[in-house]
């Protein structure tokens, strides 16, 4: 039996603004398994970020159920969702949101100071290959290196799940591949379940499974028989 991390049952999200309603997720059923690398592909507006926001405890579903292991997220109030998010989920976004006046080490330490069982900032930075740059400020680092600091910050609290929304969106191919390599390294070394939203179809080759989104639904799931390494990617 596979170990299930997320289970979605008929998960639906409707955004209402004034008289307009947008059905962003339409009865999504899904299971995500522990230790998987999953890539989410699909056109703009197809519901990928909406699903991430609900999985990450940043937003509420309109109907249906979402479980993180045995915990029903769709039953939680904002306070409990915040506790869930702090404990279990790491986020990586397209823009790194590092604090410019703090070094890489200090940016990571901000998170480790408020976590229960964190790794040391230098350990987290070593996992993304930045041990030699840890006393540099963001402005002294390349875009790809800054994103790797953001990944170190996200994993330092040892989350079970890493949600990455367009992690290579602002990067050229060489540095983007290095970032994917860092994410795969985290998955291999810590067993973290890694979900990646991307518009770059090449990245799907590193996944265990690829979820194709269309119009608020998962239209297809593809299982890769063999995962490619980041070094084998070209875009
Ligand atoms: N806060 C919001 N209020 C109203 N509508 C929203 C809101 N957030 C998203 N939507 C709408 O919900 C739908 C799904 O959006 P979502 O951001 O999940 O798509 P996406 O697949 O992540 O797109 P992208 O690839 O461009 O990030 C879109 O039609 C979008 O306009």
Automatic annotation (TrEMBL):
InterPro entries: AAA+_ATPase, ABC_transporter-like_ATP-bd, ABC_transporter-like_CS, MacB-like_ATP-bd, P-loop_NTPase. One of its GO terms (molecular function) is ATP binding. SUPFAM superfamilies: P-loop containing nucleoside triphosphate hydrolases. Residues 6-234 form the ABC transporter domain. Keywords: ATP-binding, Nucleotide-binding, Transport. The keyword Aminoacyl-tRNA synthetase does not apply. Pfam families: ABC_tran. It comes from the Bacteria. Belongs to the ABC transporter superfamily. PANTHER family: ABC TRANSPORTER ATP-BINDING PROTEIN MG467-RELATED, LIPOPROTEIN-RELEASING SYSTEM ATP-BINDING PROTEIN LOLD. This is ABC transport system ATP-binding protein.
């Amino acid at each position: 039996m596979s170990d299930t991390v997320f289970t979605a049952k008929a998960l639906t999200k409707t955004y209402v603004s004034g008289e307009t309603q947008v059905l962003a997720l339409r009865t999504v059923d899904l299971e995500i398994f522990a230790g998987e690398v999953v890539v989410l592909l699909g056109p703009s507006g197809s519901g990928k970020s909406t699903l991430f926001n609900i999985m990450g405890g940043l937003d509420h579903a309109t109907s249906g159920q979402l479980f993180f292991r045995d915990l029903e997220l769709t039953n939680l109030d904002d306070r409990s969702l915040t506790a869930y998010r702090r404990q279990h989920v790491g986020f990586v976004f397209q823009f790194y949101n590092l604090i410019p006046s703090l070094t890489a080490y200090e940016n990571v330490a901000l998170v480790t100071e408020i976590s229960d069982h964190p790794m040391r900032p230098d350990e987290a930075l070593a996992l993304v290959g930045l041990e030699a740059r840890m006393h540099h400020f963001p402005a002294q680092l390349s875009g790809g290196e800054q994103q790797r600091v953001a990944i170190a910050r996200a994993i330092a609290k040892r989350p079970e799940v890493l949600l990455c929304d367009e992690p290579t969106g602002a990067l050229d191919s060489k540095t983007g591949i290095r970032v994917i390599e860092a994410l795969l390294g985290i998955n291999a070394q810590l067993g973290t379940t890694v979900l990646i939203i991307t518009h770059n179809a090449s990245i799907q080759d590193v996944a265990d499974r690829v979820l194709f989104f269309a119009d608020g639904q998962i239209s297809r799931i593809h299982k890769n028989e063999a995962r490619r390494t980041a070094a084998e990617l070209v875009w």
